[in-house]
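Tutorial sheet, problem 5. The two components below are modelled jointly, 576 residues in total.
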Amino acid sequence: MSDRPGRLSPDDVRHVAHLARLDLTEAEVEAFTRQLGAVLDHAAGVAALDTSGVVPTAHPLPLRNVLRDDEVTPSLDRAEVLAQAPDAEGSRFRVPPVLGDGP
Amino acid sequence: MTTSALALAEDVRAGRRSAASVVEEHLEAIEAGDGAIGAFRLVTAERARREAAAVDAAVAAGRDPGPLAGVPVALKDNLCTRGVATTCASRILEGWLPPYDATVVRRLRAAGAVAVGKTNLDEFAMGSSTEHSAFGPTRNPRDPSRVPGGSSGGSAAAVAAGFAPLALGSDTGGSIRQPAALCGVVGLKPTYGRVSRYGLVAFASSLDQVGPLAATVADAAAAFEVIAGHDPADSTSVPDPVPSCRGVLDEGVAGLRVGVVAELADGAAPDVAARVAAAAEALAAAGAEVSPASVPAAVHGLSAYYLIAPAEASSNLARYDGVRYGLRVDGPEVTAMYGATRAAGFGPEVKRRIMLGTYALSAGYYDAYYGQAQRVRSLIIADFAAAYERFDLLLGPTSPTTAFPLGERADDPLRMYLSDVCTIPSNLAGHPALSLPYGSGDDGLPVGVQLLGPALAEPVLFRAAAVLEGSGR
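Model answer (structure tokens):
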């Protein structure tokens, strides 16, 4: 097993928050640096275990591809679904601009 | 109100009582008592009255109203109910009306049960005390200064307070069993895949499972029989037929090999450990062969779980982005909208887990943390398999302590996580486990003992639980 990664820094926390699309306050960055560091310290025992040759388990059941007959069945009602959206237009979800300046 | 669910259903089916009167009585109990407990997020009184009337109409017309006819049930508020608010105790889903019912909700209704409301939980089921609800905590009916456990704390409290004889919860790392233990009720986490997860809002998909909480073992068995079974809408659901659990409750434990798991009992408080020892003696007195057992890798369960579950959660919770449902906080462009929406919508514990999970999955750390945790999961499964060559079932505590005071662990995540140390191994293995009340601790509060079995061993767990329930505690 590889060595345990180094201690979590506030910059690591900011980077991870960006990956998670989660805006954090500076107070949250400080708190998470401390709290996540404590959880990762607790996980050090796991990181240090010799697991060479052990196959990882992603799932408790032997998963197989599940197929069904190609029959048309009812799906969710579009109007009912769109009624729950913060913003919709016609038959679509409406979002702020993805690229460049908005309309 | 201590009448069992099955006794109520029997009366309703036989026409001795109306479902309407049963439901009204429980709605009154909620109205009178829930202000002090906070078990419910939402009470669906009018809907419950309509459903009760439909049950009574079925009885009057001579139709079979189902095995749970007229039984009030409380639903954890992470189970989707069509047209009825489902919040997961999170601001990010406040006001959301699901466009479909969870399979378990449909099955309960088809069995004649009547949903009376949605119960409080730790936000997105992440917690062990129900203090991480965005809408305030639930209190333990046995002592309102204490937590009910979590994350299904509202469901456990609803049953313990007599607001509903039956409730559904979800269990990812102990979220049915630990609150059941702390509130003094019966709780079952079924085998992974035994109960459909369709319509259960996902937390950690390889660990989540829906199960019942009830005042009696027989009631829990009846509810399990109703909700279990294959569902084409959940590709991980097990196709095997569901064996009778109610039918084997009086078969006893003579000849059954029971192992008392050293690794689970080690961390328990002395008063809790004493109740586990008493349960072992009671099973032995009933004819079981009881001896010590070991699941060595279980000691690494907690650390592996707090890498695997947050990793899966960080992926599952990516869907709350202000696009399709729930909260949106506007921004000049879409990524700014995502970041602001998620910052405003998620509470501190959910943010903590998303951060932890994203870190464990990120480039450079994936193998050291997530990959390693998955290998440790394999070690735990192998150790359980070895134990089940020698034993039919295993015994241990459910929670290391009785219910703790509100606020005691709220600001210490790691200490809170340790509440789940005895329950997590079953989730990692995908095995069933049942908690039932077995006396009380030095503080007079309920102690839960936990019965663990291999995959699909629910009938054996119920048999042993029935023996313990009848052994005088």
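Marking note: Chain A touches chain B through 59 residues (CB under 8 Å). Full credit if you identified this.
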